[in-house]
Amino acid sequence: MEIILQETAAEASVIAAKIIARLVREKPNAVLGLATGSTPLGLYRELIRLHQEEGLDFSQVTTFNLDEYIGVAGDHPCSYRLFMMENLFSGLNLPASQIHIPDGLAEDIPAHCEAYEEAIRAAGGIDLQVLGIGSDGHLGFNEPTSSLASRTRIKTLTEETRQDNARFFERVADVPHHCITMGMGTILESRVCLMLAFGANKAAAVSQAIEGPVSAMMPASALQLHPRVHVLLDAEASTKLTRKDYYQYVYDNKPTWQRY
Ligand code: GLP
Known about the structure:
By secondary structure, the chain is an alpha/beta fold. The chain has a single domain (2-258), classed as 3-Layer(aba) Sandwich (Rossmann fold). The protein is 32% helix and 15% strand. α7 links the parallel β9 (192-197) and β10. It is globular and about 50 Å long. The two termini are 16 Å apart. The structure holds 2-amino-2-deoxy-6-O-phosphono-alpha-D-glucopyranose. The site of 2-amino-2-deoxy-6-O-phosphono-alpha-D-glucopyranose (GLP) has 14 residues, from α5. 2-amino-2-deoxy-6-O-phosphono-alpha-D-glucopyranose is lined by residues 35-39, 66-67, 132-134, 140-141, 161, 165.
């Protein structure tokens, strides 16, 4: 696991965008796993800038989003589909047919989840998965006690997650109780994981995920089992890490060819 410590979310987002840009330049038909939430907003802004100002080409890229609320239509202001359209896809040259987001209105949810897994396989698997982290340690919507081998499926949100995400809805009562999310097994199969965490309310989850034991109680800790993970943190999210000096030392001494 590579831990990259930056002072601000903006600086960390630029590095995350460089990692993705390098992949897309090397493999123009890369498959990207994408996340929602406030965390990746700076990254998405930078990807749009790279496309519009530096010609980074997304025309052959395929994307799969991590999750979606159940019962929320794709054009609902709080849907993750609309979030992605407004905050990323509208600024890129990515054909709509190459965008995949779980359908919160699917009639047969288990069949839809299976088809989603099949679509990821058919695309050749995810090359790089962007991840945020919930304050309770969830990835996607894999809440604590999610099986670390789980696949795309329905999940029930914890009350903590519903409260955290209530800011996007008019009232807490409007936050759905259920969602469709890629499973931990699905996420761990991506070739590279890129987790971003910003702000003091992520510090506890970040330290447990990186330095704590691997446990379904802290789903993000399963990233310790993955061979290629980059974690990008701002100063506030890194305050509870005990090995910060080492992470910084590793980063400062990266061989030139490994730098971003
Ligand atoms: C939601 C999403 C997660 C995201 C998390 C953190 O629950 N399903 O994918 O990582 O929120 O959100 P934020 O980035 O807004 O803190």
